[in-house]
Amino acid sequence: MRTLDDLDVESKRVLVRVDFNVPLDEDRNIIDDARIRAALPTLEELRSRGARLLLAAHLGRPKDREPELSLRPTAERLSELLGEDVRLARDLDEVPDGDVVMLENIRYEKGETKNDPELAERYAALADAYVNDAFGAAHRAHASTEAVARLLPSAAGRLLEREVSTLRGILDDPARPLVAVVGGAKVTDKIGVLEAFLERADAILIGGAMCFPFFAAQGHGVGDSLCEEAGIEPARKLAGQEKIQLPEDLVAGREFKADTERRELDGVDVPDGWMGLDVGAATAERYAGVIAEAGTVFWNGPMGAFELEPFAAGTRRVAEAIAAAPGTTVVGGGDSAAALAQFGLADEVDHLSTGGGASLELVEGKSLPGVEVLQ
Ligand code: ADP
Ligand code: MG
Q: Most Cβ neighbours (<10 Å): which of 60, 81, 340, 359?
């Protein structure tokens, strides 16, 4: 993959695709600016090498040019972080001059998500070179991530470079034992990841609602637990594998609510009228022990409904074990990152991926269009 080392940027106008798809509150204040900060190394390097920047990013899924999805809040935040004026272009035909200029939400453009070559030509006409640093969008072939890269001298930014080398490194040459911790809501979302790790990992620790299709396949009662029907057959095929470890105890609630009645279950049979909402203490302790011995840990998907305090303990214990692990630790997935942040552990892992879907696809061994085009 071509990197910033391969690109001549001095005195050039460089179009930089960044991932500024940040969460906003009702008043359009940025709740978490991690994605903006993650782009700073690339932007600062380009500035120091004499480039003028034209940034392209998307926010949400606009159907029209909804003003609520304007990139203005991110332009303002970036301006503070860079200590430079960031001007926002109203549209592609009215791009102001300036050292740092940002295009409006590129999903306002009809052809963006269709990878429209004509739109890509319009982007390319605005710049002399192209850098993609938007790892979170690299699994999509869009005009600003794929087609435009073919039209200009192009390279990956430092964030994209680090994401790809770290996540590919897990597959290609991990320090062993390689332990995958996989949780979250749905097996079907993560079947590809499980299969990839079945070939390469030494242990796979399953948690979250993911475990219920496994238990259903084994004939256990799952009560009212979130148990994805379509996940039961794939889980049945995986359940016999020695590498796959399942919970031995659970914490259940009556409803998906923090103030619901709560009950610790000694096994994994969930009675009718109850739902499994967390792994139990014995499971969390066992998983923590496996994590402590790992050479590499990849974590995707919470161990339970960590948003609800009474059901956060299993995810917290596993997160703490990952934070304390001597091995290399890599975390992917929006909710897993949110859980780490909630426990104050976000800075305690070696790599916290900025891409949800993109990180899973990379770990599955798929090639990402936005990366492929830079090769
Ligand atoms: P990530 O974003 O890290 O990839 P997912 O989106 O796959 O993770 O899963 C996160 C969601 O899974 C959380 O909202 C969490 O509440 C939910 N979840 C985890 N365990 C359970 C469970 N036992 N029952 C219901 N929901 C669960
Ligand atoms: Mg999620």
A: 359
- Residue 63: Cβ-neighbour burial (10 angstroms; 0-12, 13-18, 19+): exposed
Return the axis-axis angle of helices 72-82 and 40-48, rounded to nearest 10°. 60
Ligand 2 centroid, distance to 358 Cα (angstroms): 12
d(C-alpha 180, C-alpha 188), whole Å = 17
Active site residue 111: no
Looking up tokens 């940002």, which residue turns up? 102
List CB-based neighbours of ion ligand 2 within 5 Å. 334-335
With a Cβ cut-off of 6 Å, ligand 1 is lined by 183-185, 189, 208-209, 226, 276-277, 300-302, 304-305, 307, 333-336, 356
Within 13 Å of residue 342, how many CA atoms lie on the same side as its CB?
Answer: 18
pLDDT tens track for 182-216: 999 988 888 889 999 999 999 999 999 999 999 99
In sign, the C-alpha dihedral spanning 154, 41, 351, 328 is positive
Contact between residue 154 and residue 370 where contact means Cβ atoms under 8 Å apart: no
Q: Which letter does DSSP use for residue 269 in this model?
A: P
- The rounded Å distance from CA 163 to ligand 1 centre is 23
